[in-house]
Every structure is written in C-alpha cells, then in structure tokens.
Amino acid sequence: MLPLTTKPVELQAPDSDLRSCKALIIDANQTSRSILRSMLADLGLSGIIQASKMAEARRALETRAFDVVLCDYHFDDCGMTGSDLLDDLRRAQLLPYSTVFVMVTSEASYVKVAEAAESALDCYLLKPHTANALAQRLHLARHRKVVLGPIFEAIEAEDFETAAKLCLIRFQQRGEYWIYAARIGGELLLRLSRFDEARQLFQAIDQTRALPWARLGIARSQLDGGQPQPARNTLESLIADNPSFIDAYDVMGRAQLQTGQFEEALQTYKQAAEATPASIARLQKVGMLAFYLGQNDEATRTLERAASLGVSSKMFDFQSLVLLAQIRFDEKDPKGVQRCMSNIAHACEKMPDSGRLRRMHSLIHVLELMLQRQVGDVMHNVKTMVLDAQQPDFDFEAAGNVLSLLLRLRMNELQLPEADEWIDKIALRFCTSKASTDMLAMTVRQYQPYADMVQQAYKTILEMAEKALGHVRAGDPTAALKALVMHGAQTKNAKLLDLADMLLTRHRHDIADAEGMGDMLQDMRSKFCRFSTHVQLGASAGRDAGGLKLRA
C-alpha cells in the first residue's frame, strides 16, 4: 500500500455558507418545485433553475455548473427515476464532486433511495419535509465537501498521488468521512493502475463495513488487473446478495466480454437495461452487442430507443449511429442511412477535431455512396479509410467498423482486390486475445473466408510469440526481444509489444543494448498500446460502472 503517516491532517474550518450557491430543482410537480424554490431562496441561494422533465435537467447540467441539485425520485412520464438520472449523470461525468445532489423521496421509495445514498448520493430528503430539514441536509453535505477539500484540490490539480495518500491517511485514522475518503482512494488507485493496492483497500472497507460498492471495487480491481475469472466469482457473489445493485451487472457484462462470453454478456446487459429502461448507456450496450451477435431486431429496437432518449446528449455514443446505418444499409433503406449521416455530420460540426467522429462519418458516407452505386467513389474512400488503420489512434472499435464495412461491400458484390490484405493487416494488429479475435470474427461471420482470416491472424500472432520465447528457453533473451520488437513493429500488435516489455523487464541484465532496445520498445508501446485493444462496446467515456467521478 502507499506509505501512510500518523500525523493528523490539518483541515480548514468547515464552511457551509449557501448564499453563493447555484441550484437546480428537478421535479415534475409544479407545486413541489415552487415550495423547494422558496425554501432555497430563504436559505440565500441565488440563480435557482427549475426543470420539470429529465431531458430538461440533462440539458441544464450539460451546459451549466450547479452547487446544489434537488431531484425528485418519482417521474411518471418517462419510466425513469431520479436514481436512474443520477446514475446516468455520474456515468457521463456531468456531476463534479463539488455538486451536492439531494434526492427527494416519499416513504414508499425510501429503501431504494437509501441504497443509492450508500454509494453515490450526498443525501436524501423524505417527504413531507420542512425548510429546517432541507437546510440541515444541505449544510451537512457542504460540510463534507469542505472537510475533504484537500483531497478534491489535489484531484483537480491532477496530483493523484497526493490525493490517494490523503485518502489513505483519513481511512487509517478513521477521520471524519473516512468511508467516503476510502472510496475515493480506491478510485485513485485504480486510476494509477495500482490494482492490487486498490483491491486491498476495497477489501479492508468490505471487512469493516459490508457495502456493495466496496465488493464491486474488489471485482473492478481484479478485472482491471487482468484477473477476469476471479472478478466474475466476486461479482456472482455480489449479485446473489444484492440483486438490485445494477452497477454490478455492468461490470459483470464487461468481465464476460473480456472472457469471450458474448451471449452471457448480452443477457447481463439486458438485465441492467430492463431495470433502468431510460438509461441511454445501458440501452446502447445491449444494442451494440446484439448487432455483433447478428440480432438486428434487438439492436434496432434498443439503439433507436437510445437515440430517441437523447441523440444530442453527452451520454449518447455515436457508435450507435454507425451500427444503425449498417442495419439500414442491409435493409436497402437510403433514408434511414441519411438520417444517421445527418446526425453524425452535426456531431462532427460540434467536434471538428475528433478523429473518432471523422472515421464514423467516412464509414456512413461510404454506405450512402454504395446505395447510390457510385462504385469509383466507394473504392477511393475505402482505400483512404484503410490507410488510416495504420495510425496510432486507430482502435479496436474502428477496426471492427472497417471489417464490418468490408463485409457489407463484399456481400453487395463489390470486389475489392486488396480486401484480403486489408483484413489481414487489421486482424494482425488487433487480435490480441481470443476474446478480441472472436469479436472481430463475429463482425465478418456472414462471409466465412473473412472470419477464417481473422482467426488465422491470431494463430500467427501466437506462433510469433511462441517462436520468440523459444530463444529465451535456449538462453538467448536478446534474440527473443529482437524478434518480438521486429514482429511488433510489423504488426503493431499490443500483445507482442507487451510481451516484449515483460521480457525486457525480466531479463534486462542479460540483453545486449537493453537501453536502446527499451527506448525503441517504449516508443512503439506509447503509440500502439495506449489506445484500448480490449473488447469494448462504444467509447469508454464517463465513469466506470461502480466508480466515482474524479474531476469536475
């Protein structure tokens, strides 16, 4: 664990003054909103904004910063609860630590809200409530923000080492809000890739106070530390004891993806989406995985539902439009493809520097051209896209998209002489595990020769690794390292480059020119191992399931 000190932490005097705070009230009932607004005004708050619908609240939180958010638990019009909204806001990183989030609920919903309070809420308020009760809750929540202020300041300065150390000191000394500080500390250790230390901290919390999020932290530490099966065991136990803890299903789905259990992952994601039917992120997970598994009806239903809930929201992942465009292309629906193109073009205008959106725009444009039978333009654009596949920031998602596009062109009788070569190069780069290989093979399974090429590429990578390691067994680690670096440079495969790094670390003293080889290797790893090569569904923006946002 990080070194701890027994010296007490000096804290500034708590200041819970609310007069400078800006607030957002989210409640479908106009009378309730008016009452809350009057109470906040009496406490001295200014700049009070009201929202009667979830969509209005999302827009407000995406464009403005608030010190206080008061949110009702129950909404009739959308099948979504205030807790669901909070979960999506945390996931999309729209709520910084400095914001106090208060859930307002009736007695009937108390149990569910209390569960949420254990993991993410600042506080909750039972109806009917008095102005004094509201004031007390807000002052206490603001007090915690101040007490933990040094931790938050270190996080804002991106000094995660110091922030983690402060969290661990408070945990060890059982200082005020030590449980909350320990949770932040666990998140910081995960951010710093100190997975064993994070697991130990979450285990210590779990042994002290059995909290679902602490056990989920253990599973996340195991999963991020390359132990998917122990993570699954932890998650199975957690879900059995806490079947309503939806974040656990999200992490279980990720663990199942990494172990290649795609059908199981789909069922897990479905359970999470059914429990939170208005969650844009969870609907998209279901839709994306259903698409790769060839379940187009399910994919269409859930992806269009996600788009209807918030295509303009920061929570929406534009990979959904890429998949919907391909489904519409298969259905020979030019208007459907055009709708996807319009939405992606609008997103590109808002984020012109996004290479990810540019690639998505190019892919949908090729589908449009193909429906118009503009074959020459199709071939020109596809060649440009494939050249882009050699760039460092071209990731696993982009690889799957290009393979899926090449499949569709092949199935529509467009013969591309270089298609086999392109597929082989992409597969050699991104087949880093059996799960990633199987996922890429799924994208082209409608044409078996392409699927076979993907599987063969992984076999080739394994053969390269095994042959190189043979040099180590023969007592020549230098030859082994040179072989791995050479093959890594040719294929840009992260598995080979990571294996070379492990070999260099273990046998550095026995390798000729270890420093020079190490510099070359680290340069390649910074380019081709930096972007995720793991099986993933959409972008990994926002908080991880079960996690907390670390920065405003």
Characterise the protein shown here.
The protein is mainly alpha-helical. It has four domains: 23-147, 3-Layer(aba) Sandwich (Rossmann fold); 151-275, Tetratricopeptide repeat domain (Serine Threonine Protein Phosphatase 5, Tetratricopeptide repeat); 280-456, Serine Threonine Protein Phosphatase 5, Tetratricopeptide repeat, CATH 1.25.40; 461-528. It contains 26 helices and five strands. The protein has a five-stranded parallel sheet with strand order 2-1-3-4-5, sandwiched between helices. Helix 3 links the parallel strand 3 (68-72) and strand 4 (100-105). It is globular, with a radius of gyration of 26 Å. Residues 1-15 have low confidence and may be disordered.
Topology:
Elements (H helix, E strand, L loop, with lengths): L22 E4 L3 H13 L5 E4 L2 H10 L4 E5 L9 H10 L8 E6 L4 H10 L3 E4 L4 H17 L1 H8 L3 H14 L4 H14 L3 H14 L3 H13 L3 H14 L4 H13 L3 H14 L4 H13 L3 H15 L8 H12 L3 H17 L4 H17 L3 H14 L7 H16 L7 H12 L3 H10 L4 H26 L3 H15 L2 H14 L6 H15 L24
Parallel strand pairs: 1-2, 1-3, 3-4, 4-5
